[in-house]
Design a protein that fits this description.
Length: 154
């Protein structure tokens, strides 16, 4: 159980670290250029989606969907709240400085990126037949095929 919580904490920290790095790059490299700042934000969302695609692929091989989906249902909101509320404070901005539209746009974009990443990772895993359920069915079929046929006497 400790390993499970450690994995969740490390994933939240990694997602938040990606956001902090993107904010620092925007702050010190492209403070006045809105187009470049938008590109850095887009790259951040792509990286977050890729991280979650890899995590879904890896966790989906080892654990049933219900187990790791419950973990993701905790990881994504916590990382999102850190990203939206704490991230701007680290670079000296107010989380609500851009107005309600910008604030909620960040939330929707974050949910879109994380949802797409998780979906792509799991769909690729399932398409390859390496998910937990497919492996269970494969082992079941092998066990059933390995048993000799029972002879019925009449």
């Amino acid at each position: 159980m400790d390993k499970r919580w450690r994995d969740i904490g490390v994933l939240v920290a990694a997602l938040f670290a990606v956001n902090v790095v993107a904010r620092l790059i925007t702050r010190f490299g492209f403070d006045e250029d809105d187009t470049a700042a938008d590109r850095v934000s887009l790259a951040m969302f792509v990286v977050i989606g890729l991280i979650l695609a890899v995590v879904a692929f890896r966790w989906g091989r080892r654990r049933p969907l219900a187990d790791w989906a419950a973990d993701m249902a905790l990881v994504v909101p916590v990382a999102m709240l850190l990203t939206v509320l704490v991230g701007p404070l680290l670079v000296g901005h107010n989380p609500f400085a851009g107005g309600a539209g910008t604030f909620f746009a960040q939330i929707w974009l974050y949910l879109l990126a994380t949802g797409a990443g998780l979906l792509i990772g799991y769909l690729v895993l399932t398409a390859l037949g390496r998910d937990y359920r497919s492996q269970q069915l494969k082992r079941f079929a092998e066990v059933k095929a390995a048993k000799p046929r029972r002879v019925v006497r009449r």
